[in-house]
Amino acid sequence: MKLVTKESFDNLIDKLKKLVQKYENNALHYxxxxxxxxxxxxxxxxxxxxxxxxxxxxxxxYLRATNMFKNKEAFLLLKEFLESSYSxxxxxxxxxxxxxxxxxxxxxxxxxxxxxxxxxxxxxxIEFICQYDKSKTYQLGLEKDYPCDYFIAxxxxxxxxxxxxxxxxxxxxxxxxxxxxxxxxxxxxxLKKLLANQVLTFxxxxxxTNPVTNFKNTSRLPLAFKxxxxxxxxxxxxxxxxxxxxxxxxxxxxxxxxxxxxxxxxTYRIICQQFMQTIxxxxxxxxxxxxxxVREQLDEDMIGLIQVYNDEACKxxxxxxxxxxxxxxxxxxxxxxxxxELQKQLEMKEQEAIxxxxxxxxxxxxNVFYKEFHDDIINAVQKHL
Length: 385
Fold this sequence. Notes:
Number of helices: 13
Shape: flat
Distance between the termini: 128 Å
Radius of gyration: 38 Å
Number of strands: 10
Strand order of the largest sheet: 6-5-4-3-7-10
Order of helices and strands: HEEHHHHHHEEEEHEEEHEHHHH
């Protein structure tokens, strides 16, 4: 059993209390994250209160088993445990409780890394993403068996590496592991073991939504930074063996961008060819004459070019036409709107006329009824005279 002084125990509890209080008071802890990765995957997660004890390195299962605490819900149990620190320390000193069973052997690093690992702002802040498969490192003699599906890595100016481990749960992920690799001679050894036979990628986009503050933000990795990110991934790839880099989705996106540019150039070429024919025949260039596939590729620049030509085509000799093609088109559109409005008015009048006709028929039927009733009364009176 690890021997611990009252002073060191109190210092540890004080650090935990401050971190828990800062987490509770910071509205950012309600942030919901969506990471869009260069390998085509999406990571959706949030650091919820029930995740905090484990990330801080507190073994709640052991605390529940002691039957010392009333609360069973994770975050409330953590707070009750911190408020009962004297009883806990007394139990440790008397041998009823085990310090190593309550606290992680990496508790100091977990506390230092906690705030680094629960808030995210920009893709450029993410050092790398590791798509983790523990079965690929099973035979490598790792000291730790991480039950994670992804690791999000960040660094600080000192070169320390912070890792948040995520576990897949239905359509989202749960923060499970909070790690820190100090910048020392053991850092590369730890990374080598962690990254062996794993897949590395980077974050393209981070979307943040906070349902409490109504804050929403989308941050994208600039194109100029992507090459630098690939260089960083190669650096970590070279630390270990069997590690691969997967940025296939980002490559496909860039490839599609090139294809889109080539398609646009082809569309311009087709339009230019038809322009030449139209110019030679001194006719108006009608967009409707284009094939559907070409018309779908039209952008504002192309449409503007067509309108300028049509305006010029309206000129006669060296004098300008009284009305340009664009003006005629605008007048046509206005007239079309007026026609639609008149059609609506006509339909309303027709409905009013139908209603009036039905009302007249109803009144005529009532008139026949009243006439027959009047005749019956006259006949009845005459019989009694």
